[in-house]
Amino acid sequence: MLGWVRGKLRSRYVAMLEEDVARLRAENRALLNSLLGTAGFPPVEIGDGRVAEVPRLRRRSWQQMQRAKEEQSTK
How far apart are CA 30 and CA 37, in angstroms? Predict the structure, then answer.
């Protein structure tokens, strides 16, 4: 009898912890997407415990930007 009660309480505790983990993961995903949006990256879709790859934006060096400005000014 005592083992059954202990098992029932433990299963409720584990279920509560799993719900808390799911809530924290959702919060972390929202914070990550907020930070990525601020940095100019598209949001990350994460599902089924998989980590999605973050697409990289191509950043130009200042030399490339200067060369492009020079080309535009000569046109």
Answer: 10
H helices of 1-75, in order, are 2-39, 62-74
CA–CA dist 35, 3 (Å, integer): 47
Interatomic CA distance for residues 7 and 9, integer angstroms = 5
- pLDDT tens column, 41-70: 777 776 655 555 655 666 777 888 888 889
With beta carbons less than 8 A apart as the criterion, state whether 44 and 29 touch: yes
Q: What is the pLDDT of residue 10?
A: 76
Give the helix/strand (H/E) hosting 45. none
State how far the Cα of 8 lies from the Cα of 25, in Å rounded to an integer: 26
